[in-house]
Amino acid sequence: MAFNPKTTHHALSLIEGMAPVITCELYANIIDKNGWRTRFAPSPTGFLHIGHAYAAYVVWQIAGENPDKFLLRIDDLDYTRCSDKYINQLKSDLSRLDISWTSQETYQSKRLRRYSQALQTLQEADLIYPCYLSRMEISDFLSPPSIEQISQPCTRGALSSKEILKRQQRGIKPALRLDMSKAIQHVGEVGWTRLDGIVIRAEPAKFGDIILGRRDITACYHLSVVLDDADTNIEVVTRGEDLRSSTDIHCLLQKLLGLPSPIYFHHPVILGEDGKKLSKRHKSPSLHNLRDTILTLKNILRKELVINF
Fold this sequence. Notes:
By secondary structure, this protein is α/β, with parallel strands linked by helices. 39% of the residues lie in helices and 12% in strands. The protein has 2 domains: 5-108 and 268-305, 3-Layer(aba) Sandwich (Rossmann fold), CATH 3.40.50; 111-262, HUPs (Rossmann fold, 3-Layer(aba) Sandwich). The strands form 3 sheets. It has a 4-stranded mixed sheet with strand order 7-6-10-9. Helix 10 (246-257) links the parallel strand 9 and strand 10. The longest helix has 13 residues, at 5-17. The chain is globular.
């Protein structure tokens, strides 16, 4: 996207007007720990924008600006949209923001076997089931799209064995759904812990029978990130407020799979002039097009993220 000074200025102004997300107490805790082991996990389906820069800088601060505690994970499961040019550019953008890391980057596309093993574990426990319904057929189960958080339907038994066989013979692959009712019965009450020590009771039941394995990709976002965070020993999952609801699902999956539960820190997201989250979909200005503005951005991020002593 072409450089747009007006849009860029608006985004920078929003950052300047936001309350610091790192309090004095939290900053002292970070320094005492020499940083928390955390991660920045962009999807290389487009170029990074100012919203990404803000998110990456929050992660960098939680890591104590310690390259040994900052991990870069490339969430490249969506092979139809991911590109090496975006991966190369995002690494360059992070470097221009003075963010560095010592560990080798993790690529989700190289961890498909790990995701398959977890799905097999859940399948053997009868906690997931195949769904051969099309999107159009599934839409008949769903609530009206005006409802912000749509609960996924239970489709177990929706098709006869004969119909399932027909679809299998046509080469139709199933999506794999979590049997939410069985999962909750299996683990009981679950919750997650904020970085300030407050425990939040999770309510995964409201999401219904979520999909954990897509037809075209071994695993979906929820399963892959839970396994990635556990396998890389992440201490604090740092991500935007817009993903807070996903945490309810993730702590359930952690308990089902016997994985450790990290601490969670959710930060504000940057909104555009239209009040919507800055995103690639809405063609937000890319970092690699900001050129000289990158210095201003770095200075603003340093100034605004942390309350000075």
